[in-house]
Design goal:
Layout lengths: L3 H5 L2 H10 L5 H17 L1 H11 L4 H10 L1 H5 L3 H6 L15 E6 L2 E3 L3 E9 L6 E12 L5 E13 L4 E9 L11 E9 L2 E11 L2
Parallel strand pairs: 2-8
Antiparallel strand pairs: 1-3, 3-6, 4-5, 4-7, 7-8
Helix pairs in contact: 3-4, 3-5
Amino acid sequence: MALQIFKKDPSKVLDILEQLKSDPSIYVRKSVANNLNDISKDNPQFVIDVVKRWINVNPHTDWILRKGCRTLIKNANPEVMELFGYTNFSNKELQISKASILVEPSEIKIGESCEFRYELEIPEGVEAHIRIEYGIDFVKARGNISRKLFLISDKTVAGGTFINGVKKHSFANLTTRRHYTGEHVIALLVNGQEKAHTVLKLVDN
């Protein structure tokens, strides 16, 4: 059950988290991280301010912060991305000019799988901390679109590195997700920025 009093003012929880932020127990650290992640959904700036105070002091605390900011990182919050050292590819000298994604086959039935190939080239220069994801714009029951992101990799690479790979995605119905016919955009994202996309058409069985 959500506790509205803490959603409004999460500072009431911070005194407890302060005492646990460097705990050697992985169980405790997971709990602190999950708490921060929950807070970030309603009070992102509160968690960002906590990160600024706690980061780079203790390895256990850094682990908590990384896990506790997973939603903010997934949403590519600019301030959080900078705090955790992700490269900002919006800078002119760091533009990714070579990126592509291709899906095969380009039309499948609900319940089948598709395979897509992606590639990109990191600009020459200093090493880059990158988070590569693919996003699918799922068609919903009423025809509206909802994008969901899937992590491919999160790593540091040298400047000029060429990256490519193949991923398979199933469009089988699940208890948590039903699929509907229509055009589904599949996008390649680097540090939250869309760099290429392709289109998959989903049809009835």
